[in-house]
Design a protein that fits this description.
Blueprint: H1 15-21, E1 35-47, E2 52-63, E3 67-72, E4 78-85, E5 88-92, E6 95-97, E7 103-111, E8 116-126, E9 141-142, E10 147-150, E11 169-178, E12 182-184, E13 193-194, E14 199-210, E15 215-218, E16 231-234, H2 237-240, H3 247-265, E17 273-278, E18 285-288, E19 291-295, H4 305-313, H5 315-320, H6 329-348, H7 350-366, H8 383-404, H9 406-420, H10 429-438, H11 440-447, H12 453-460, E20 470-478, E21 483-491, E22 498-507, E23 512-519, E24 522-529, E25 533-538, H13 549-565, H14 569-582, H15 587-599, H16 603-615, H17 622-637, H18 641-653, H19 661-670
Parallel strand pairs: 1-11, 16-17, 17-19
Antiparallel strand pairs: 1-2, 2-8, 3-7, 4-5, 4-8, 6-7, 9-10, 10-15, 11-14, 12-15, 13-14, 18-19, 20-21, 21-24, 22-23, 22-25
Helix pairs in contact: 3-4, 4-6, 6-7, 6-8, 7-8, 7-13, 8-9, 9-10, 9-11, 13-14, 13-15, 14-15, 15-16, 15-17, 16-17, 17-18, 17-19, 18-19
């Protein structure tokens, strides 16, 4: 069954979000690539009625080794008809698909390291559904009505093995679709031209090396382009005319976010954006030069504004600046995620930022089993890779901001973008560390203490884990009415840890803060205040990634959500119960247990869990409205319509429309919910 309620980071609904951030066909332990594709010229025909793609691709590549064969990744649903050298099209080359799925082309002669060649591939096949997608159950390459998607990770063209989001290329695309359809890709070169067979061809050219390999085509309504903006929205009639979505305002939000990020980093290579609808069974978001693609279930709703800003940030931190290797993906992933948080801070203030950081921290610790410096060895579809590069990457930059100070931090990011914009070699951890060290004098002047950047990068990039703090102190009254002295010791469990921590002392008078340089497992401090201390706290604004009981609850729920996404509700319930054991009043843990039990059709136990959620701490707030809706569904499927209607009414009375909750409740007030048959 499909849940429409808000899900945590590794739900099936949000695995696509993480996939939209960094997808790849396989995991590569080695970073060396025998070749790199640099130029594509593709002529392709999309037939939605037959769900087929037919294409010819001129693929220009450079040999990084001496080669007798050249390997290319290509979607397993596509069959190669012929491969020739572009310079010798009359002599076909031998091309076979290896056990790994790559197309192995035997070259007519040894190709020396550093030489360049162009191969012409002719291929076709049926792309329908998610069977050949690198993400199970999620369409990344599918020819369908009303929307076809050919996303870069869907391998719809021959690509560099191990080069996903690393090996930069240019593209020239000529895409033929049925008359009446519109095609969205990077670098449109003019109006489409009609063909005699009731089709039309759209032409695109993106001459700047990047990642322009995604296409969205379909039966779209007239483009929504608010006057005075550089953003347009392309959506189906169903979305464009949906009164619950304000697409012109959505475009205005995207414009504000684009302008804000431009003020942070400088202008990207894409000077305008097309927001385009994706099918509901595709990823929740994806990007390409000039393109921000948002799932139709999210497009236009206020609760997708963070998803929107994250995807817009990819114009800087993925398309223009790419990682040097998969082990450096935390830089671009982390900066796109942190750009999302910076945009939230700009829109809603510092408190909103620090509240959101709690969720990011949970994701950072959920699968913190290996250092970021070796994360390239992990399968990029694994929760470990996604969690570490996206969430922990964002936390690294959040903590680096605390180390450097705001002005120095923003100067660092602007400088990194200026230096590595379009760089073929990409950006590495060493590049970030070197640039940060070059600004250490500025950081010292801004924060009042010299940043320990060698220790910082060693801890957060070369090691895994996060400290757990214990603060023990004694308050002494000073003689002569001179105030109070706090003598304390900060303990943590990582011997090599070294980083500043803010100590905040709230007194009967003014609040006193002190920046403590924590080093090793014990750090002593001595602070005097005039007013009597009332509350002493460490890192009150959440600048550091650290283990806390509250975060442990979030981590357990996050792991449970991943088990649900993998189709294992029993394992999910076990994780949720760990969260509930740590926090018996957690509405979210109870709600997730009810959700899993409902999927198993254990209705009485599910109802008990939803009641527990309603009696809990109401964190997050949406657990109330969705618990009433889920109780209503339980009463409907057990033949108790009067009780179901009462729950739907209670849901409406909350006036909480998180993830369309009110629309859902009103729908089932009119028509009883019916449980889907198990598949």
């Amino acid at each position: 069954m499909r849940f429409t309620l808000p899900m945590l980071r590794f739900s099936r609904a949000l695995i696509p979000l993480l996939a939209a951030v960094l997808l790849a066909p396989v995991a590569y332990a080695a970073q060396h690539r025998p070749l790199d594709v640099t130029v594509y010229v593709i002529h392709a025909t999309l037939d939605p009625a037959a769900h087929t793609l037919s294409a010819t691709a001129d693929v220009t590549f450079t040999a990084n080794d001496d080669l007798t064969t050249a390997a290319f990744d290509l979607n397993r649903s596509l069959s190669v008809t012929s491969v020739t050298l572009a310079a010798d099209p009359t002599h076909p080359l031998d091309a076979t698909r290896s056990a790994s799925g790559a197309i192995q082309v035997t070259l007519p002669a040894l190709m020396a390291h550093g030489l360049q060649a162009t191969l012409t591939f002719t291929y076709s096949g049926t792309l329908n559904g998610a069977d050949s997608s690198p993400i199970e159950g999620v369409r990344t390459a599918a020819i369908s009505d009303p929307i076809s998607v050919l996303l870069y990770p869907g391998q719809w063209f021959p690509s560099t093995p191990g080069g996903y989001l690393i090996s930069r290329f240019t593209s020239e695309l000529h895409l033929t679709v049925p008359a009446g359809e519109t095609v969205i890709a990077s670098g449109p070169t003019g109006a489409p031209h009609a063909n005699p067979d009731n089709t039309q061809t759209f032409d695109f050219n993106w001459p700047t090396p990047g990642f322009p390999g995604s296409v969205i085509a379909g039966k779209f309504a007239p483009t929504i382009a608010p006057a005075g903006t550089s953003v347009r929205i392309v959506a189906t009639d169903a979305r464009a005319h949906d009164s619950t979505r304000n697409l012109p305002e959505y475009a205005a939000v995207a414009e504000r976010q684009f302008d804000f990020l431009t003020s942070l980093y400088g202008p990207p290579s894409a000077n305008r954006l097309t927001l385009v609808e994706l099918p509901e069974d595709s990823v929740s978001a994806f990007w390409a030069p000039q393109i921000v693609a948002i799932n139709g279930a999210r497009l236009g709703f206020a609760n997708s504004h963070r998803l929107l800003s994250n995807t817009i940030a990819r114009q800087w931190w993925s398309n223009d600046v790419s990682p040097a290797s998969l082990s450096d993906a935390w830089i671009t992933n982390g900066l796109s995620r942190y750009s999302e948080l910076l945009t939230l801070e700009d829109e809603s203030g510092a408190q909103a930022l620090h509240s959101a950081v709690n969720d990011v921290a949970a994701g950072a610790l959920a699968y913190d089993t290996q250092p970021l410096s070796s994360i390239g060895r992990a399968d990029v579809f694994s929760p470990t890779f996604q969690s570490m590069t996206l969430e922990k990457g964002a936390m690294v930059f959040h903590m680096l901001r605390w180390q450097l100070g705001d002005q120095t931090f923003h100067a660092l990011l602007k400088g990194l973008y200026a230096q590595f914009h379009g760089a073929t070699a990409g950006i590495s951890r060493r590049d970030v560390e070197t640039a940060a060290n070059a600004l250490s004098a500025n950081a010292t002047a801004e924060t009042g203490s010299a940043p320990e950047l060698t220790a910082f990068f060693s801890q957060w990039i070369d090691s895994n884990g996060a400290p757990s703090y214990t603060n023990q102190y004694t308050v002494y009254r000073l003689g002569g009415n001179k105030g109070f002295r706090i003598v304390g010791s900060l303990s943590e469990d990582l011997d090599l840890f070294s980083m500043p921590v803010l100590l905040k002392i709230e007194t009967e008078g003014r609040t006193v803060t002190q920046r403590l340089q924590v080093a090793g497992t014990q750090t002593a401090y001595n602070v005097e205040t005039y007013g009597r201390p009332r509350r002493i706290s460490l890192d009150p604004d959440g600048w550091l990634l650290r283990q806390t009981p509250e975060l442990g609850v979030r981590v357990a729920i996050l792991r449970g959500q991943q088990r649900m996404a993998e189709g294992d509700p029993s394992a999910a319930i076990a994780e949720y119960r760990k969260a509930l054991a740590a926090s018996p009043n957690s509405s979210l843990a109870s709600y997730r247990i009810g959700e899993a039990l409902f999927q198993q059709r254990s209705y009485q136990s599910a109802a008990d869990a939803f009641r527990d959620a309603l009696r809990g701490d109401s964190d997050p707030r949406w657990t109330e409205v969705w618990s009433h809706i889920m109780l209503g569904k339980i009463f409907d499927v057990t033949g108790q319509r009067t009780r179901a209607v009462n729950e739907y009414r209670l849901a409406v009375q909350t006036n909480d429309n998180t993830q369309g909750a009110l629309n859902e409740a009103r729908k089932y007030l009119s028509t009883p919910y019916q449980q889907e048959n198990p598949t």
